[in-house]
Specification:
Layout (H helix, E strand, L loop, with lengths): L1 H15 L3 H22 L4 H16 L9 H31 L3 H33 L12 H23 L10 H9 L10 H12 L10 H15 L3 H12 L3 H9 L12 H23 L21 H17 L11
Helix pairs in contact: 3-4, 4-5, 4-6, 4-12, 5-6, 6-7, 6-8, 7-8, 8-9, 8-10, 9-10, 10-11, 10-12
């Protein structure tokens, strides 16, 4: 009896000229788009997300060999896979800063090479996410478009974010990937098609990141950092921290630690966040925590306090200075000098 049901898809495929492989691929892609991606957005496990992107991404994309359209899910899987490369890059960067703090120059030299490899891999993966978004939805540099669903709009916006991050990683890998110089302008114009009120201030944050990266690219009289601050507030109100994370990262990159520290100090409480986007908030917190860790490592040689991304205060957690160590050693030596010598022992003792 069961064998009859197994024959139905085979018969349908033979009548329509479709292969079983193509039908299976279309089913997998549709499920990934409609169910897996929204589910992933509601989860806060970044390690699971990046591993899913690395493992599932190539499998889903392979169905393009049997003429299945996979770009709409390739946006998220490539960006998620890029997160794994980012994790490796961040660890190498933090190791480099700590090595320099401890005057371990050989280790620092090795760490910076590891760091650049991480930037390169992240750029390679994230630009694929951007390119998949452009192939699926267009680049909007000429005109905006309407989306069939909220998931499609989200994927398009994430594709732009993936492109912006790819640009930063490529720059930090000595432009080893060679991303086209046309990409920043396309991202800047396309982001203007999205509303800050609907998408957590992220459109303005993306545009301002381009303005900061390319001198003279922004509108006259507009301070990109101030624009990002306003965008971060809108994101906070909607419970999504991506715009605030972009502010922290870009302010640090352009030498505005005051703005970065101010943004870190204003991170909203966890109970105010939108749990439909736990994945995006976890990613944003990861970006901000990394910048805080770097600041602490530069100053003290170790990371920021656990679960408290912030700029290091002058005295908070500060180790003893060289003078303090000398004074302490002098005191210990003085105490040892004052200690009476032990009595000589007899053979019996």
């Amino acid at each position: 009896m069961k064998s009859r049901y197994l024959l139905i898809p085979l018969l349908f495929a033979s009548l329509t000229g479709c292969s079983i492989t193509k039908m299976a691929g279309e089913t997998v892609v549709e499920f990934t788009h409609d169910e897996a991606i929204p589910y992933l957005m509601s989860q806060g496990d970044l390690e699971a997300a990046c591993n899913m992107g690395q493992a599932l991404g190539p499998v889903v994309s392979s169905f393009s060999r049997v003429e299945v359209e996979t770009d709409n899910v390739g946006i998220a899987t490539n960006m998620a896979a890029g997160m794994c490369a980012e994790f490796a890059q961040r660890n190498a960067e933090l190791d480099r800063v700590r090595a320099l703090h401890d005057n371990r120059t050989t280790d620092a030299q090795d760490d910076i090479i590891r760091e650049k490899y991480g930037h390169r891999l992240a750029a390679q993966r994230m630009i694929k996410g951007y390119e998949a978004a452009v192939r699926t939805f267009g680049d909007f540099s000429e005109s905006c478009r309407k989306f069939d669903s909220k998931t499609d709009a989200l994927l398009s916006l994430l594709g732009l974010a993936s492109g912006a991050l790819a640009l930063l990683h490529d720059f930090n890998s000595e432009k080893s990937v060679g991303i086209s110089l046309d990409v920043p302008g396309i991202i800047e114009k396309s982001a203007a098609c999205f509303s800050d009120d609907d998408w957590w201030g992220m459109p303005t944050a993306l545009r301002a990141s381009i303005w900061l990266s390319i001198p003279g690219a922004g509108p006259e009289g507009v301070d990109p950092i101030e624009a990002m601050k306003d965008a971060a507030k809108k994101g906070d109100a909607q419970g999504v921290l991506l715009a605030r994370a972009m502010l922290v990262m870009m302010a640090t990159n352009v030498g505005r630690p005051d703005a970065a520290c101010e943004a870190l100090a204003a991170i909203p409480a966890a109970d105010t966040l939108n749990h439909d986007y736990d994945m995006l908030n976890a990613y944003a917190m990861g970006l901000m925590t990394h910048q805080a860790d770097l600041a602490w490592a530069h100053k003290f040689g170790y990371r920021a306090p656990f679960m408290k991304p912030s700029c290091p205060a002058e005295q908070t957690g500060a180790p003893l200075s060289d003078q303090d160590v000398d004074d302490l050693l002098d005191g210990l030596l003085d105490e040892e000098d004052e200690t009476p010598a032990p009595a000589p022992q007899t053979p019996a003792q």
